[in-house]
Amino acid sequence: MHKQKYNNLLAIIVSIASLLLGWKLLAVVLDNPALPGPLPAFATFFQELTRDLWRHFIISSYRVLVSLVISLAIAIPLGMVLGREAKLDRYVAPVLYLVYPVPKIVFLPVLMVLLGIGDISKITLITLVVFFQILVPIRDAARGINAAVINSIKSLGARQWDIYKHVVWPAVLPEVLTSLRIASGTSIAILFFSETIVSREGLGYYLLDAWSRYAFQEMFAGIIAMGLLGFVIYMILDYLEHRLCPWKYL
């Protein structure tokens, strides 16, 4: 177990070191102020953290995490039900197929008019986007459960609630974590767009403000903060997957 942890830590260190080395080489080759090297960028990052960057980081983290929690709370039960209840799915599926491909970012102006330019419109937009990315895989995973497994549980006297609790939920759980991993990356991208439009706070605003002032090192400090936000979310999801789906690592 300790050896496995050591190997995982070593892999993370080697991976990040390779990224920084590639970044440094590219900065040296281009020799352009628009692409500072990793050392001055990280130095600016730590300086900015003690000033105002930490506040933008907290605000963006709050918006992403709340959006993911709301999306999960709605998409998980709905996806499980749609995947197992064919009659209901028959009526809902056409709506899904119509709405899912529409780029939800186009609704940002409408949301800002209806909900204002604060947290609510941004959280709603991110929730709209990632909700479908979580819902569709869960619905498909629930639908793909072997009927023989369901019938064997029913023959033992299981009620509908027992089927959802002991069969459907464990079957869709890996898909929940995988879709959440994909959705977290999307949520940060949508966050950037929403915070660059009529906003005075958040990492997206911080990045755009630094860009408009040609403060490239500060801009990269914001990019590092955004990457750190995604990294923390991915590490949390990896931890949850190890705890909730131990059979995947046997």
UniProtKB/TrEMBL annotation:
Q: Where in the cell is it found?
A: Cell membrane
Q: How does this chain sit within the bilayer?
A: Multi-pass membrane protein
GO biological process: one example: transmembrane transport
Among CDD domains, the record links this protein to: TM_PBP2
Q: Which UniProt keywords apply?
A: Cell membrane, Membrane, Transmembrane, Transmembrane helix, Transport
This entry carries the following GO cellular component terms, namely: plasma membrane
Chief location category: membrane
Which Pfam families would you find in this protein's record?
BPD_transp_1 (PF00528)
> Domain named ABC transmembrane type-1: which ranges?
57-241
What parts of the sequence cross the membrane?
A: 62-83, 95-117, 214-237
Q: Which family does it belong to?
A: Belongs to the binding-protein-dependent transport system permease family.
Q: What is this protein called?
A: ABC-type nitrate/sulfonate/bicarbonate transport system, permease component
